[in-house]
Amino acid sequence: MEEELVHIEIVFDEANEKYQATVQSDLGGLREYTANTMTELLRTLTIELQEEFDNVVLDEPDQVA
Length: 65
Known about the structure:
Layout: E1 6-13, E2 18-25, E3 29-35, H1 38-59
Antiparallel strand pairs: 1-2, 2-3
């Protein structure tokens, strides 16, 4: 059984020459991130999502398989 935990859409805004990510999750809701490079954007997303899911594991240790 599959369950979508996070939906991420990444686009390059040519007008501003920046990468933009829209992230939607049940835990964090809808949010947007902007960065000058794809590497910077992916680094930010990784950190933010890691923190979000680490909090779930800490709050619900019995739920982890």
